[in-house]
Every structure is written in C-alpha cells, then in structure tokens.
Amino acid sequence: MRFWGIAALALATAAAGGPADAQDKGGDAPIEKIEPQVRVSKHSGTFGGQRINYAATIGETILKGEDGTQKAAIVTTSYVREPRDPSRPVTFLFNGGPGSGTVWLMMGAFGPKRVAIPPDARDDGGPPYPILDNPDSLLDVTDLVFIDPPGTGFSRLLGKTDPKEFYGVTADAKAVAQVIRLWLNDNGRWNSPKFLGGESYGTTRSAAVVNQLEASTFNDVSLNGILLISTILDFAAGADTQGNELSHITSLPSMAATALYHGKAQAASTEQFVEEARQFAIGPYASALLKGQKISAEERASIRRQLSRFTGLSETFIENADLRVTPDRFWKELLRDRGLTVGRLDARYTGKDYDNAGENIDQDPSFYGIDAGYTAAVNQWEREGLGFKTDREYQSISSLIPSWDWNIAGGRDTNAYLNVTPYIGRAMRENSGLRVFVAQGYYDFATPFFAAEYALSRTGIPQDRIEYHYYQAGHMMYVRDEDRVKLSRDIRNFIRSR
C-alpha cells in the first residue's frame, strides 16, 4: 500500500509521550489526572484585506472513557474573530499521515502566521526561518480550529490507554468528532455554519469524521462544506501492487505534468497536456492494461509510443517495465540523464542521490526541502507566541502508521482495500446543503489528482455539489506563493457561497 502524505516518511520516532506526559509507567503506581492547559491571547492582523481582532486559544481537551478515566489530551489551536459572533462560520482543520500534526496547514496556509519557505522548489536551508504575518489566512470569512489528533503535535494518550482505542480509521474519527462536539459546546457554536477540512490522509479522516458527525444516532452535527486538499479516499487508486492496474491509470496524468515541467515533453500548456493524458489513461491505456498478456503487438507498440510521449521516458524503459511504470521508478528515471531525481510530494523539486544507479530515490527532495522550517516555526509560535508550556516534543511526524487499523468498522469484507468515499456520498445525499471543495496539485504523487477525480465520480455522489481547483505545485501547493494566494481565494469564495 502506498502511504499518503508527509507522515508516510516518518522514522520510528515516539508517537507520543515524554517525561511530563503523566503517562503511566507501569506497575501499581497511581495514574495522575491532569488539569488541561489552556492559554488565551489577543492579537490583530490583516486578512483578506480586512483588519481583524482575534483571540488565539491553545488548549488541551480531555477525552474520557465511559468510567470517567482520562484517555487522551487533544490539543487544539483556535483563532476566533472578536467580537465573537455565534452565526459566523467555523472551520475545523487537520493534517494527514496518519501521524502528522496540523503544523502544515496552520503554519503554511491558513493560520494568521506562516513560515517563509522558498516558493521556487528550493531547499529551505538552515535557520532562522522567517515567521510572517499571513494575509492569506481565512480569518476574514471563518473562525479556525486546528486539531492535532491523538499522537500528533502536543496531543497524547494518557495513563494506561491502549493505542488501539485511538489509532485507526474509525477510532481516530470518533475522537476527532468528539473534540468537535466539545468545542461547539464550550464555545456556543452549535448553530454556526460549519466546515471540515483536511489535507492528505486528513481527507480520509474528513470522510470518516463526517460519517461520525452526520450519520450519528445522537448529537447529529450537520456541515455546510468539506475541504479536501490533496485527496485520498479510495486507496485502490494508489496501491502500487503487482496486478493492480488502476494505480498506473491514475498516476499517468501526474507523470505527464511532471515531464512537461522538466522539459521532457512538449505541449502548449499543463492543462491541455494533462487533459490529453486523462483521456489516454482512461481510454486506450486502461483498455490495454486490462488485456494483460493478450494485447496484440500492434496495440502494444502504439501504447508504448504514447506512454513515452506523456512520461518523457524512453520506449525501451517503458517496454522493460511492461508498459507499467510505477511512480518510484519514474522519480528516479525521468532526470537520470541530468543526475537528478524528482520529488514525490512535489515533483517540481529535484534532488541528487548518493549515486545515479538504482531505481529508487534515496529521499524525497520535496520533503527534506521544507520540513525543518515548518517544525521550527510551529514550536516557536505555539510555545512563545501563544504561550503553551510543555517539555514534550511537537510531533510534526510520528510513527503511527505501523500500528494503524486501516479496517472500517462494519465493512462487509475486512480484507478489502480502504475506500471512505461512500461516507461522503451518503452525507451529501442526506444533507442537501453539504458541498465539497477539492484542491489538487498537478505535481503531487502522494495523492494524484486523477485518483481524486476517479474516487469522487463514482456512483452515489452528487456531482453538482463538488468543485475542483488545480494548482501549479504539488501536495502542499501553498508552498508556492501564487498558489497559496489562489487556494485562499478559492476557499473564501466557497465559504461565502454557502
């Protein structure tokens, strides 16, 4: 299975916990109950051209078991315009992985402060990294609540809590939905317009959380919109396993965009070329793949020529790959003649491996090109700017994936691949006011844009309430200045048009 988003690159670091966590150390020692830390500060800034006063609150929400035992401390960071307005929209946001803190969306795209990352696909270098006012924050149209799910950011499990209670598709969604309900209670916002947004696996989480909020038998929480940024809903579309032809089809348009960007293909525009690639992928290419070894020599030669045109790879390489070039081979091969590799999260980035042999890249240059700046920025802002006091490490990337339960509770076949798209379809059918915003980068191989289009075009999903937006960058399109501005403007329009 291809893991989705930046948390897939995590090493075996501690998912949660530290000396000050009040975690149970075993034995018969009593379990300490913690008092949640909450810090409130007042700020002002200019967002969307409006000068706005706002309150920033960073605090722990304690989730408890049925017996009252403290299970987890979930940290949220909220930005609420003042004076407070209960009829104003509120948007709940989180990142992906699973195991990724919400640092990326908060410090890169929508929070009132952002870290300055080179916008032209260059490495972020060494510190200090400038932390700037962010005029592209959405605070002019919506209050913002950034949620670090259990095991990410400063959030952690408490006492003897079994990780299985929180680390899984459904368990995680239940926890996030509970945090949202508690925030609505505490802030008197039950009747506010509500939006839910995630990036990468955060889009998977969005679908699962919607299922917990709107399909619940109690305390039903209806939403006005879902923001899907770098979308992965149907995991079959990205499963690079032998015999799965779908991943080759959904990755091809991303390869075409990347080949064109790096001068390995020729076309009038990115939009034109990827549209040609879409039609070829879903038509002649899909037909050829499904024929397997029964394909004729003539058809094989035609498909090989077209694949070479779209991918920028030689016909010899494509033939040796049996017409099935996996993304990892593509990242290594495309610029091999220049001694360079291309990125997974953002194929605009290039890197240089230890040597030019082999078929896999050493590391993803589009990840190590940005990670240090984001980690430094979130620690500086939350500890110093917002006053959160802790000796724990902020988990930008943690190691939850190996222990993650990928099964959907209640599924007919627990061995089936994960597909949460039907959750969104059901919610839209049962809530006529629910709309979906989809943002995709052309150069994203973690969550290819054609895979998102495929998933959301399936049966049972109202097509007239989905809107797609595309960006000339990768998985985190907001690292490019022009696309951060465009993404902010597109979402503003989406929220205003509710």
List keywords for this structure.
498 residues; alpha/beta; Rossmann fold; ten-stranded mixed sheet; two-stranded antiparallel ribbon; 14 strands; disordered N terminus
What is this structure, in a nutshell?
With 498 residues, the chain is an alpha/beta fold. It is built from 13 helices and 14 strands.
Please report the first level of CATH classification, the CATH class of the largest domain: Alpha Beta
Weakly predicted, low-confidence segments: 1-29
Helix content: 25-40%
Overall structural class, as computed from helix and strand content, comes to alpha/beta
Radius of gyration: 23 Å
- Terminal-residue CA separation: 37 Å
CATH architecture of the largest domain: 3-Layer(aba) Sandwich
Quickly count the helices.
13
CATH homologous superfamily of the largest domain, by name?
Alpha/Beta hydrolase fold, catalytic domain
By CATH, the topology of the largest domain is Rossmann fold
Whole-number tally of structural domains? 2
Secondary-structure element order, as H and E?
Answer: EEEEHEEEEHEHEHHHHHEEHHHEHEH
Instruction: Let me know the number of strands.
Output: 14
Mean pLDDT: 90
- Please indicate the percent range of residues in DSSP E strands (runs of 2 or more): 15-25%
The backbone outline, from C-alpha atoms, is: globular
